[in-house]
Amino acid sequence: MRISVRVNGETHEADCWEGESLLFVLREKLGFPGSKNACEQGECGSCSVLLDGTLVCACLVLGAQADGRDVTTVEGLADGERLHRVQEAFVEAGAVQCGFCTPGLVVATVDLLGRTPQPSEDEIREALSGNLCRCTGYAKIFDAVRLAARA
Ligand code: FES
Ligand code: FES
Q: Which ligand is nearest to the CA of 140?
């Protein structure tokens, strides 16, 4: 089937098989490799995107389900050369090691701060509980979220 999906403000069309995930369509058909494919089972959050403003795991959404809808990926957060404040905070706090989890964590943090500009510690932990990081031990990631909330 042919789908039309608005990604980061621009409309894109793609031919896709009905069983293909939105993550596959974004990465392999539309040229948005920012969302990472780590588990493909909804366990790690590395593929997090906003679908019509709602945080989802792109590996659990069919490409066909995104037809006619609006997707924001990590590539859509910066304003030209200027990083989003959440991206800046991750850099500043040193919250990135291998970086594989980072796009998903950044998108999840943008979602959190959009809903709750001054989150409590519990709210931060709850919001990022679906995003796994194998490297950092999370302390610097939580620092980055606090920093972004203050920015
Ligand atoms: S790749 Fe989607 S949750 Fe892990
Ligand atoms: S920085 Fe490597 S998985 Fe998080």
A: 2
